[in-house]
């Protein structure tokens, strides 16, 4: 009777889409690059708990904000929080952050970048890195919880991706604008470049040619910036123009060192580029990541010597050893081909301790999610994601009961997930044909649940393993 009650409860969770498809910890081992031998998802979880406790705050009507300081919230922080909460499976927080984002959008559909409290605009118009992170987080949310509940993550994600394409990519050049209201070829920010997201956007919206061109342009700008300015390793500048040169617009805007140094913007670049290698095996990403990792390992003599700022030629301008710099270089070490250096980098990041600093601790938490295999590419973003009909009548399983194997008859590209009688995720796969074999020969007998989803609608089937 107890098992039956648990099963019914679990089934109701699936119907309400509150059960994450991939609960934390995911513990993914990436197909590309190295994983630290000392990695532990509990480290990421501890960082998340501290981040949530110190930097999130409830507004009203289910909204949440991320505290940039005691009174202000920035769009960057909302989007970082969406990434963290969706991978943690924290649906209430994720939904509250996304509702806050939507409450504070401008006419272009992107969030005004700085808000006092919960609703007073203190900095108008968008910051593109926030849009990129938020849009990708919505793709993960659609994978985690489906899109038939109170928030249609899939539709919202496509709408935001369209807004980015329309307002934050410069027309005809594929240069990423740093906001919807300024920049492009005249000024851009390499630390916003997220080529792994672009590939996912292309698959999610059936627009791969456009988004692959944006990814290609990102590497062109980065490589030109390194070459033109005689950079050591992967030390890109905080800001540059579309040719990779220093931007004439940076100094009038008051950016640190006129945007010419590897400072608190640029320090995020190794993290964003490493993701493209770990998820997609992109050669340009590996080349850049290895340059960054080798700069630390060989030029600086190891991760403990990292400081918070460099001229592009590698000379030191910073003084602090902290998570934004240490962690991004640790992510680069995942593509750096030196296990000992990666292990040391992981341990170095773990030892940094700035729980009261919004920027430093938030980035530490994001980096730790990637380093432990909890910042991953969902299967729903790896193939073209056309909407297709999935009705109860189009899905069947046979034989049922069975001693070991079941065949699922469902539309091609369906996402098929299998849950144990206790509610644990057993397997998941994308259907490459109408008939998909599920082998449960190594599982114990009992009543299993199989969920077949197209991202907007889900059909659940019960099967008996004898």
Protein topology:
Elements: H1 2-16, H2 41-55, E1 56-58, E2 64-66, E3 72-74, H3 75-88, H4 91-103, E4 114-116, E5 120-123, H5 128-145, H6 153-167, H7 195-205, H8 208-228, H9 269-280, H10 283-299, H11 323-333, H12 339-351, H13 358-371, E6 396-398, E7 405-409, E8 415-419, E9 425-430, E10 435-439, E11 446-453, E12 458-465
Antiparallel strand pairs: 1-2, 3-4, 4-5, 6-7, 7-10, 8-9, 8-11, 11-12
EC number: 3.2.1.4
GO biological process, one term: cellulose catabolic process
Keywords: Carbohydrate metabolism, Cellulose degradation, Glycosidase, Hydrolase, Polysaccharide degradation, Signal
Main features:
466 residues; alpha+beta; Immunoglobulin-like; Glycosyltransferase; 2 domains; 4-stranded antiparallel β-sheet; 3-stranded antiparallel β-sheet; 13 helices; globular; disordered N terminus; cellulase activity; hydrolase
């Amino acid at each position: 009777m107890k098992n039956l009650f648990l099963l019914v409860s679990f089934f109701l969770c699936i119907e309400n889409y509150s059960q994450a498809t991939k609960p934390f910890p995911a513990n993914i081992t990436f197909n590309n690059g190295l994983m630290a031998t000392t990695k532990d998802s509990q480290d990421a979880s501890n960082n998340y708990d501290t981040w949530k406790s110190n930097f999130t705050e409830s507004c009203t009507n289910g909204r949440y904000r991320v505290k940039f300081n005691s009174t202000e919230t920035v769009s960057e922080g909302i989007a970082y929080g969406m990434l963290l909460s969706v991978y943690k499976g924290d649906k209430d927080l994720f939904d509250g952050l996304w509702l806050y984002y939507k409450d504070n959008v401008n006419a272009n559909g992107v969030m005004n970048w700085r808000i006092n409290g919960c609703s007073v605009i203190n900095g108008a118009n968008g910051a593109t890195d926030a849009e990129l992170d938020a849009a990708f987080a919505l793709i993960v949310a659609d994978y985690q919880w489906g899109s038939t509940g109170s928030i249609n993550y899939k539709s919202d994600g496509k709408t935001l991706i369209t807004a980015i394409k329309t307002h934050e990519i410069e027309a005809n050049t594929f240069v990423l604008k740093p906001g919807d209201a300024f920049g492009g070829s005249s000024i851009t920010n390499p630390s916003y470049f997220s080529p792994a997201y672009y590939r996912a956007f292309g698959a999610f919206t059936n627009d791969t040619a456009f988004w692959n061109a944006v990814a290609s342009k990102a590497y062109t700008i980065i490589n030109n910036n390194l070459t033109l300015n005689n950079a050591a390793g992967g030390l890109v500048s905080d800001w540059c123009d579309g040719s990779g040169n220093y931007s004439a617009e940076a100094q009038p805007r008051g950016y640190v060192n006129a945007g010419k140094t590897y400072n608190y913007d640029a320090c995020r670049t190794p993290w964003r580029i490493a993701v493209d290698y770990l998820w997609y095996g992109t050669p340009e990403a590996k080349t850049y990541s290895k340059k960054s990792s080798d700069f630390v390992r060989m030029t600086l003599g190891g991760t403990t010597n990292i400081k918070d700022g460099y001229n592009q030629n590698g000379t030191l301008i910073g003084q602090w050893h902290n998570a934004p710099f240490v962690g991004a270089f640790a992510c680069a070490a995942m593509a750096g081909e030196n296990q000992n250096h990666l292990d040391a980098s992981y341990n170095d990041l773990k030892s940094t301790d700035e729980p009261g600093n919004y920027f430093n601790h938030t980035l530490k938490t994001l980096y730790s999610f990637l380093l432990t295999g909890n910042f991953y590419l969902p299967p729903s973003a790896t193939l073209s994601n056309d909407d297709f009909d999935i009705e109860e009548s189009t899905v069947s399983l046979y034989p049922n009961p069975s001693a070991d194997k079941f065949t699922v008859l469902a539309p091609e590209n369906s996402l098929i997930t299998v849950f144990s009688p206790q509610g644990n995720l057993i397997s998941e796969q994308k259907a490459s044909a109408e008939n998909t074999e599920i082998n449960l020969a190594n599982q114990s007998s009992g009543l299993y649940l199989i969920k077949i989803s197209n991202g907007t609608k889900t059909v659940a089937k019960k099967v008996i393993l004898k």
